[in-house]
Amino acid sequence: MVDDILDYLKDIRSRPVWQDTPISIKEHFNSSLPLEGQSLELVYSEFLERILPYPMGNIHPRFWGWALGTGTITGALADFLASSMNSNIGGGNHGAVLVERQVINWIKEMVSFPSSASGLLTSGCSAANLIGLLVARNVKTDFNVRNKGLQNISSPLIVYASVEIHSSIQKAIEIMGLGSNQLHLIPVNDDFQIDLDLLKNTIIEDRKKGYQPFCIVGGAGTINTGSFDDLNALGTICKKENLWFHIDGAFGVWAALVPSEKKKILGLLQADSLALDLHKWMYMPYEIGCVIIRHETDHLQTFSIMPEYLSHKKSDGGLIGGELSWYSDYGFQLSRGFRALKAWMSIKEHGIKKYGRLIQQNIDQAKYLAELVKTHSNLELSAPVFLNIVCFRYVNQELSAENLNELNRKIVIELQEKGIAVLSWTTLVDQSVMRVAIFNHRSNEKDFDFLVSKIMEIGARLSDKLKF
Ligand SMILES: Cc1ncc(COP(=O)(O)O)c(C=O)c1O
Q1: What number is the average pLDDT over the span 30-47?
Q2: What is the rounded CA–CA span in Å between residue 317 and residue 376?
Q3: Among 53, 192, 277, 408, which is most buried by a count of CB atoms within 10 Å?
Q4: Are residues 242 and 150 in the same domain?
Q5: Last residue of a domain, one of 350, 382, 412
Q6: Is 354 exposed, middle or buried (0-12, 13-18, 19+ CB in 10 A)?
Q7: Is the separation of the CB atoms in 382 and 393 below 8 Å?
């Protein structure tokens, strides 16, 4: 299996980025529950024939859709080792817990959080955002939410973020039982940053209505364009207004590893909590994210619970004793997998400076693509390139606004269906635009030349069709 997959990855560039699974194979996955077993060789041959040829495509050098990472072989092998050990990192006195603790300490160091902060590796940034906001809610309410819940709350608890914030924030707010009406989304300025004056005024107005503002979520690398809110200013507002400051830094936080970009995230230092991913711009296989909480007691007071059957203290000795905290006290999961190993092995193998160079390379590729776009009169940039995301569109003056939106979406679909490249689309200022988000250590400049040449070809052909 290891040999096959290494061979497969060696040739990845020559394969289609994505291809649809044929109906006959799709139907195969409706087959009935196997009552008797078969040989692993047979099961594996089915994997080779029916699963491996139809990947999502994000291991390919020309995958730039949404915000997906590429994964690495070291990460995959580490996952194999971790699954073989099958440790449960809910807690206990064993090696895997030491590894998770060290990875969290490294992350704190990379993002300049104090060593006294606490953290937890999560399935991703959605879970990290949820944990950060749960701690915020419990700390900032003037009653014990864990005992009383939110059933009898007299005035709504309000969270603020820009309209560009990721939907996982809304999801977290819904899961927390606050209701998405309580997420007050503030418009952005021309740089896709939260409008600070509107934010301040909305907080004042909300207080007048008797609402309880408790948290601002800042975006460090927003999903559409990679923009950064003015984190310093948000930190100051939070202090003045006594609000929790949470930052969604899913990928933008890794600007910390690139000297020329570091200034964008200086405001991180003021955050009470920070959510980030390692499966995006640290190129690690799914799933691995992280939440960091500035004050450990806030974190523990939100989640720690110790029924008799899980009771443990440092003095106990044995598997439950020792100096190590139990990670089940820092989040909603009890049983947790050993996702820390892939981060630990990857960071040790490559060293952080190499990650900085790869991230810089993706930023340079985004600038390169933006320059290519500027050289074509039928292409236009739709937003500044803040980091590693390029939003642009195919334009043709003979087409209506509606047709242009359709055209740009159709180009994205055709690129996918022909296996040329995977981009996604989004809407910026009422226009459908193509979006290239580069979290890919396998891409090179020629991939972007190829992309643009194909977009020009498809755009011209589809424009002709849409004119009539
Ligand atoms: C800015 C941002 N925040 C949060 C998330 C959610 O992260 P995950 O998919 O790891 O749950 C994403 C995912 O793309 C994101 O881009």
Answers
A1: 97
A2: 69
A3: 277
A4: yes
A5: 350
A6: middle
A7: yes
Same domain, yes or no: 345 and 364: no
Cα–Cα distance measured from residue 456 to residue 407, given in angstroms and rounded to the nearest whole number? 12
Q: What is the mean pLDDT of the chain?
A: 96
- For residue 68, the CA-to-ligand 1 centroid distance in Å is 9
Does residue 403 share a domain with residue 319?
Answer: no
In the reported structure, the alpha carbon of residue 220 is separated from the centroid of ligand 1 by a whole-number distance in angstroms of 11
Whether 210 and 297 share a structural domain: yes
Per-residue confidence (pLDDT) for residue 324, from 0 to 100: 78
Ligand 1 centroid distance, CA of 123 (Å): 11
Do 337 and 391 lie in one domain? The reply is no
With a 6 Å cutoff on the Cβ, whether 252 touches ligand 1 is no
Ligand 1 midpoint to CA 180 (Å)? 18
Q: What are the pLDDT digits (tens) for 347-382?
A: 999 999 999 999 999 999 999 999 999 999 999 999
Question: Could you report how far apart the first and last alpha carbons of the chain are, in Å?
Answer: 52
Q: What is the 41 CA–ligand 1 centroid distance (Å)? A: 37
Boundaries of domain holding 207: 77-350
The pLDDT tens digits for 222-256 are: 999 999 999 999 999 999 999 999 999 999 999 99
Q: Return the closest-CA partner of residue 158 out of 139, 175, 173.
A: 173
The answer to whether the CB of 441 is under 6 A from ligand 1 is no
Among 68, 163, 168, 254, say which to mutate for ligand 1: greatest number of ligand atoms within 8 Å of CB: 168
Is residue 34 included in any domain, yes or no? no
Average pLDDT over residues 428-434: 96
121 confidence band (pLDDT: 50, 70, 90): very high
pLDDT for 322 equals: 80
In the predicted model, what is the mean pLDDT of residues 147-174?
96
Q: Is the predicted pLDDT of residue 468 greater than 80, yes or no?
A: no
